[in-house]
Amino acid sequence: MANLKTPDKTLGEGLREIGLSRRGFLKFCAATASMMALPPNLVPAIAAALEQARRPSVIWLSFQECTGCTESLTRSHSPSVENLILDLVSLDYHHTLQAAAGEAAEEARLQAMEANRGQYLVIVDGSIPGPDANPGYSTVAGHSNYDILMETVEHAAAVIAVGTCAAFGGLPQAKPNPTGAMSVMDLVHDKPVINVSGCPPIPMVITGVLAHYLTFGRLPELDAYRRPMAFYGQSIHDRCYRRPFYDKGLFAESFDDAGAKLGWCLYRLGCKGPTTYNACATMRWNSGTSWPVESGHPCLGCSEPGFWDDAGFYEPVSVPIGVTSKTLIEGAAVGAVAGAGIAALARKAKKEAVANRQPVTIDELEQKL
Amino acid sequence: MSGLDQIPVTIESSASCSARSRDFGNAPAVLNQIRDALERLVSSGEETCIDLNAMPFGPGDLERLTELLGTGEAEASVEALGPTRIRETGIPGVWLVDYLNAEGQRLTLHVEIATVPQILRPQPQDLACAIERLDARLTRLRDPAHSPLSS
């Protein structure tokens, strides 16, 4: 096993060593700025910071997940730049990607933790059966997910929860939550936790957060759900190219009506854009080809807490108590101001749902069965 | 097969397909932003760069914007970390800088409002050692072993 201590070489030195010219480096910084959703006039500052940055050790833990987040990252669309970023972190443990298996793999994790004590980053994908749940639902090397998480984060610099399962519980936590699944931020209270939610998250957002850490040596500014503001600062609705149709009250009423064909707003077909905060509208998917709304499908709201248990995918944005569907339709017709009010109400309802969440225990579940 | 013919089929007129590609009206807003930047370039020399990848464009918006900007006389290409294509638009001082990776996929697309785009200029650190590099070649030239007369 190679020496897992963070090397003393700076990122600039490392890049030049692999033959990247200064123009290439400038291009790398321009692409990185775009990936971090930062304005291009910051490129010189990013170049200066990256030149001096050092390669951090990263430990990636996969728990109750589908590996979609890793798929998203490894199939990201600008391989040269994102590979460079991935090459520039020292990914010391990722049990899906690493060559080592069994005890050697676990030893790599322990070595990286010891060699980079207090400095390594932990990335988690998947939710975790909580401390009171049956640990047998998800184990790695005979240890419960909960024990591995707590052991690994103890001396970490920060924890990045990648994907909605790690960030908010996601699919495993959907009612009746048979495994007692909890999110990282439910369990880790004494370390900075950053949520990169989405099912899966946009690959450029995952690498963007890593690039931000490399560039500025600290974690990005976060919103109330601990998501980076640069990517989750604006709602899908506010950045949607179909927004002008919403403002004019022009809605598709079914998937094949004239409005749908003309690209009108998908609000009434269940679009969760007004209550969903993510970067799909600008970063897009599949080599920047398209994104759900552009393909004619409403946003499902996959980056929001409780996205599985909230209203059905094809019902107009959840109708919170106190707001009738009539008010909603009127709100939609009136436009942005009312829409923002409804979005705020829906967010509040979600927040309360998160606060009052009561996972079903195995005993309860067995009793029910 | 019996049920299929009961599904109503309508053929849409080809006119709607052959017309100029539809856009969502976002190009004029960016054009105004470019106009402001151009004013600053002319009055104070301040350069601006706009990341078109960060724009919430709908299908056809980017094509409309590039069509409105037109094509100028200068074109250049930089080979570093994959190709970068630089094209002057029909508006002097407004450049499209298309950053591509080695597979030809777009990393990001900038509109640069400048006399010369940043990536075409020699980088300051490279310029700092340019004389040193040329001197090394001159020294080599003075070395009798490398003189053309010695061969």
Automatic annotation (TrEMBL), chain A:
Its EC number is 1.12.99.6. Its cofactor is [4Fe-4S] cluster; [3Fe-4S] cluster. GO terms for molecular function: 3 iron, 4 sulfur cluster binding; 4 iron, 4 sulfur cluster binding; electron transfer activity; ferredoxin hydrogenase activity; hydrogenase (acceptor) activity; metal ion binding. Keywords: 3Fe-4S, 4Fe-4S, Iron, Iron-sulfur, Metal-binding, Oxidoreductase, Signal. Residues 66-212 form the NADH:ubiquinone oxidoreductase-like 20kDa subunit domain. One of its GO terms (cellular component) is membrane. Gene3D superfamilies: Cytochrome-c3 hydrogenase, C-terminal domain, NADH:ubiquinone oxidoreductase-like, 20kDa subunit. The keyword Lyase does not apply. It comes from the Bacteria. [3Fe-4S] cluster binds at C280, C299, C302. InterPro entries: Cytochrome-c3_hydrogenase_C, NADH_UbQ_OxRdtase-like_20kDa, NiFe-Hase_small_C_sf, NiFe_Hase_small_N_sf, NiFe_hydrogenase_ssu, TAT_signal, TAT_signal_bac_arc. It catalyses: H2 + A = AH2. [4Fe-4S] cluster 1 binds at C66, C69, C165, C199. It is found in: Cell envelope. GO terms for biological process: anaerobic respiration. Its main location: other. SUPFAM superfamilies: HydA/Nqo6-like. Residues 232-312 form the Cytochrome-c3 hydrogenase C-terminal domain. Pfam families: NiFe_hyd_SSU_C, Oxidored_q6. [4Fe-4S] cluster 2 binds at H237, C240, C265, C271. Heterodimer of a large and a small subunit. Belongs to the [NiFe]/[NiFeSe] hydrogenase small subunit family. This is hydrogenase (acceptor). It comes from Imhoffiella purpurea. The lineage of its organism: Bacteria, Pseudomonadati, Pseudomonadota, Gammaproteobacteria, Chromatiales.
Automatic annotation (TrEMBL), chain B:
Gene3D superfamilies: HupH hydrogenase expression protein, C-terminal domain. Transmembrane segments: none annotated. The keyword Magnesium does not apply. Residues 26-139 form the HupH hydrogenase expression protein C-terminal domain. Keywords: Homeobox. One of its GO terms (molecular function) is DNA binding. InterPro entries: HupH_C_sf, HupH_Hydgase_express_prot_C. Pfam families: HupH_C. Belongs to the HupH/HyaF family. This is Hydrogenase maturation factor HoxQ. It comes from Imhoffiella purpurea. The lineage of its organism: Bacteria, Pseudomonadati, Pseudomonadota, Gammaproteobacteria, Chromatiales.
